[in-house]
# Entry
Amino acid sequence: MMGRGSRSLDKIMIGNKIVDNKSEIADEFVSFFTTKVNNLLGDYIPSNVPKIPDAVLPFNLEEIKNAFDRLSNKKSCGMDNIELL
# Structure
């Protein structure tokens, strides 16, 4: 349910429950799409994508989050072609 003139979701319905906390809404979307992707992929692991141990990565989760927080969400849609209208 989009608020009038809003570019973000105000609330969503999950089963019989209305979720209006932005963090919970984001968590629900993550859970939904993660489940869908995992169901589609099953045990498939692309052979051209190496598995890199977390200890080897040159950045941590907090640094990634900070980088995403600095990005403008008004420039263009991502690779998934989803954009707010």
Observations:
- Residues 12-70 form one domain.
- Helices lie at 22-41, 61-70.
